[in-house]
Specification:
alpha+beta, 4 helices, about 50% helix
């Protein structure tokens, strides 16, 4: 899939989510994605795969998975992105499997990795929400003309 097709598809998905959330009269929505990548490697017991008994009994496959999760807080009305959070499962799950059951083991480990990634994402989203709350409180405490002049000064210093 070309990059432009991927971007168009992602934009379409976010648009559909915003439209559905607007029908529910929501102000913002947290969009998240979770994925896992599994890998199967042979270990020294793989020589047993050449026998019928070894295929079913010897744990000749190492199965590992990495999980990742991302979250995006989006304004429904204008599509503004308020924040982004991401997490990676720190302790990647792994197991041993027989050659016959390696695909099933890979799927199971991938699910564990996804769960671990979501558990890592939760505190990141909480931090993002607290930061947004502090920014909002700061903006509300300043008179609007000071906030605008400070924001313009910050933009000029960036360029």
């Amino acid at each position: 899939m070309a990059l432009s097709q991927f971007i168009n598809r992602a934009t379409s998905v976010v648009w559909d989510i915003r439209r559905g959330a607007a029908r529910q009269h929501l102000g913002v929505v947290l969009i998240y994605e979770v994925n896992a990548q599994g890998e199967i490697t042979r270990n020294p017991l793989a020589f047993g795969n050449y026998t019928i008994i070894g295929l079913y009994l010897l744990p000749s496959q190492n199965v590992e998975a990495d999980g990742r999760a991302q979250a995006l807080l989006v304004d429904i009305r204008n599509g503004y992105t308020y924040g982004f959070a991401s997490a990676v499962a720190e302790d990647a799950p792994s197991t041993l499997s027989t050659w016959i059951n390696d695909r099933e083991a890979k799927a199971d480990i991938a699910e564990e990795a996804k769960t671990a990634a979501v558990l890592e994402l939760i505190p990141e989203v909480e931090i993002m929400a607290m930061d947004l709350g502090q920014q909002l409180a700061t903006m509300r405490s300043r008179p609007s003309h000071e906030a605008i002049s400070d924001d313009l000064a910050a933009e000029k210093s960036t360029f």
